[in-house]
Specification:
Layout (H helix, E strand, L loop, with lengths): L1 H12 L5 H8 L6 H16 L2 E11 L28 H13 L4 E6 L6 H17 L4 E5 L7 H7 L4 E3 L9 H4 L5 H13 L3 E3 L2 E3 L5 H14 L3 E6 L16 H14 L4 E4 L3 H4 L4 H4 L5 E3 L11 H10 L3 E2 L9 H4 L47
Parallel strand pairs: 1-2, 1-9, 1-10, 2-3, 3-4, 4-5, 6-7, 7-8, 8-9
Helix pairs in contact: 1-3, 2-9, 2-10, 3-10, 4-5, 9-10
Amino acid sequence: MDLLNTLVDKGLRRALPTREEALAVLATSDDELLDVVAAAGKVRRQWFGRRVKLNYLVNLKSGLCPEDCSYCSQRLGSKAEILKYTWLKPDDASKAAAAGVAGGAKRVCLVASGRGPTDRDVDRVSETISAIKEQNEGVEVCACLGLLSDGQAERLRSAGADAYNHNLNTSEATYGDICTTHDFSDRVSTVQQAQAAGMSACSGLIAGMGESDADLVDVVFALRELDPDSVPVNFLIPFEGTPLAKEWNLTPQRALRILAMVRFVCPDIEVRLAGGREVHLRSMQPLALHLVNSLFLGDYLTSEGQAGKDDLAMIADAGFEVEGTDTTTLPEHRRAGCGDAQPAADAAEAPAATVPAPSDETRRDLVAVRRRGAGTDLPPNA
């Protein structure tokens, strides 16, 4: 297929595809799926070999968020029966993080619900970062605390935070459809603040919220313009009790095409398989390893994930290897702060892309609310 040959060539050179080419990837048929995966896999192996970086989430404060993000089980007015608790003490958070590190995680992601941290919250998180780093040599720490105020990014960086996560989630044009308490520009600004403070920027998206192919391409191109070091790709977990509980729009094949599109647009960026992989990819998760070079180990913020030992077995069985703390994730040219990718030539107009109709089978049995780990007396899944 000429499209895939073109995209592989561009990906190996770090040349960006056109918007039409990205749309064409999403419009490919199921019969072409393995060809799409193989093509994107060549780009993935060029920049990251067969390594898989493991990340581990610690939910520092769960539920009771004042924001109204429609996809979130912690949102204002959510009736999802999730765990709700206030800030974990630094030692408790460090113990939770240690379970993930013992399971092979290279990065610990500290997340707290809310619009954004107070200065006192930043102090709490700073203490937690120190505790984790003291007890786990070589581990990376990423903070995800919402919208940042002036000076907070610099304080987190001084405390030892290596990265900051704040996802764009969906296109600017449709952002108001999923959230009214803040806007797209607020999210962009927070990512830029983290970058200006010297932290590695982590920003991604959520697929499966009823968006169009054009929306998916728009948010991925917006991310590429921001140039984060890592892009988590989440697939909507349709929690009962949230406005998007009935949004079951994804098939495993569509999820793989989305991941392939992200890889072509972000060839040399850490692409992370994030929340919802178990729900929507199901038995096809191993194929995704040919597209992504990073994933979350174990459970998520408010839902349970695949058992950590099964994650590790999946990686080994698929012929990949867990990336150690002695290995640098990003290619050398990105670590050195080289310039942007080369501009791509225009392509012919792609065929119109369509969004599949929602499935008649709503697999609500696949959404398991987290009842273990942080905020409970039960051991975590790692």
